Amino acid sequence: MNFDEYQKESRKTALYNEKRFKVYYPVLGLVGETGEVAGKIKKIIRDDNGNISEAKRLELAKELGDVLWYLSQIVTDLGFSFNEIAEINIKKIFSRKKRGKIKGSGDNR
Length: 109
What we know:
Layout: H1 3-11, H2 24-48, H3 54-77, H4 82-98
Helix pairs in contact: 1-3, 2-3
């Protein structure tokens, strides 16, 4: 499956009110799921000395799938495809590399 197929298929499971809560609902979901990934990593550091077991790796994969789902809905709600987002990002980061601006901060460096 490629990302555009995933985007189309995942949309079939979006149950939020797409007109009223377009973008907002999935952004909040993305933040929550990203926090769950971070929480699992924090516990791996605390409880397992940073060693990721196969079971924990699979748990992380499931949470990352949830991150992907919410990201897909945001991309769709904004009227983009994953391919378009990927192209925009690659152009941006290679422009930064060409100009020696990979390091640093700020959106428009």
